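Why run this: before we spend reagent on co-expression, it is cheaper to look at a predicted model of the complex and decide which construct boundaries make sense. The entries below are exactly what would go into the expression plan.
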Amino acid sequence: MVQQNREYRFLGRLVLALIAPGATRSRVKAFLSWVKQYPFPAVFVDMTRLSQARELLGDSSVSLGAPIAHPFGWMDSVVKSRYIRQAAADGADEVDVGLDYMSAKSHDFKGTAEEVRVLTTENDERTQLVFVPQLAILSDEEKLAMCEAILLGGGHRICTSWGYGWNTSVSDVLLLASEFGDDLKIEAGGGIRIPEQAQQMLDAGAVRIHSGSPALLLKADGIDPACSQSRHE
Amino acid sequence: MSELGCCIDAVLTDMGPTRPQFDRYCSLLEQLVLRALVLPPKLVAIASRRLSSLNTETVALVGYPFGAYPLKAKLLDAEQSIKAGADSLEFVLDVDALADGDYEELEHGLPCLAEIVSGGAIGLIADAEHLPAKAWKAVCRMAFENGISYVACTAGFGEGSTTTPELLASLKESASRGLRLKAWQDTGSLGEVQALRDAGASLVGIPTLSLERLVGAV
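The model came back. Tokens follow.
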């Protein structure tokens, strides 16, 4: 039953994912068959599952994404660029990209800006780049400096955190939204599970919510979450 | 410690250590003399220079934590790591592909890796928790046949990834005879490392975060 025309509280801004381990081909198939019944803005799978996912999504309006250098960001920029190109070739509309967190924690924000510049310059612009500053490991000053560096490098969209216990707070979103306004599109991710929390993130200025445990958010929209089990939190 | 140290690998798994923290890890390794520092490709060059006067190997960790990247891309990472000075490679296999019965990484990847390291050692990581028994056996068999140095039964990512001696013994039983296995111990407790050795682990990985504790224990 296609559910494209209903009004939803979260669903239109909720990004789901099915990420390893456990993303076998049969699970990806079941997950995406379920996803494409609804107007989710995007769904993420591992790079190794992009081709399969592209085929399964067919002409669905759901954007397809993949994480790159997650969750540690430990890849050379040249290698990340190649991964981004490969993801695009395999059907990704967008990618979440981990950054060099050692540079950031060592306050080498020029290094961060340069990395973002390389990645945005090398991107063919078909693929939307979403940078992950991993706010949970940063102080408030570092959060602002990191996002400033992302903007300086030519990025304009972030996903706040990867999850896996590295969570995002509403105050993080408020801080960034008040500092950067519309210049920086903020997707909130990391530990967002309950409707009140998701609503606060959206009210604070997040344009999307990434949730690895979206059951309660889906229930709030009247959707059976049985097939939604996704990733890493 | 030296006897146990030669079977312990320190693995850099913390998110965003600062450069001084990374230097501190290298200093601790100078004191402890462990077998290897296993770390992401991006840090290989700096670690290789720093550890060059020690008997501690620099091992590039490719595909961490889940191995869920295309083989071609991982091979590129492996190649760059060796060029940057890695002594050997630890390569995370895509467990979901293996669970699907897709053994391309083993069939085509292992010969490519052997060419890349040209005589250097290769370790594989196959997260046994997520593998059907049949796939674990296939990994072990093909690793043994291809002269792989060891197979690690977990990448050590996330809480609760410590290998128990019981699990190790059971994995050892279903692995090819003569294949070396590597286990994971989260806290760096020497007693628990020894217990894993007694259960049949040839190597034990510990997180760099536990190096301070290890120095205090010896």
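The CA atoms of residues 167 and 190 of chain A lie 4 Å apart. The interface with chain B takes residues 19-26, 46-49, 71-72, 74-76, 78-79, 82-83, 86, 90, 100-102, 104-106, 134, 137, 164-166 of chain A (CB under 8 Å). Bring this page to Monday's planning discussion.
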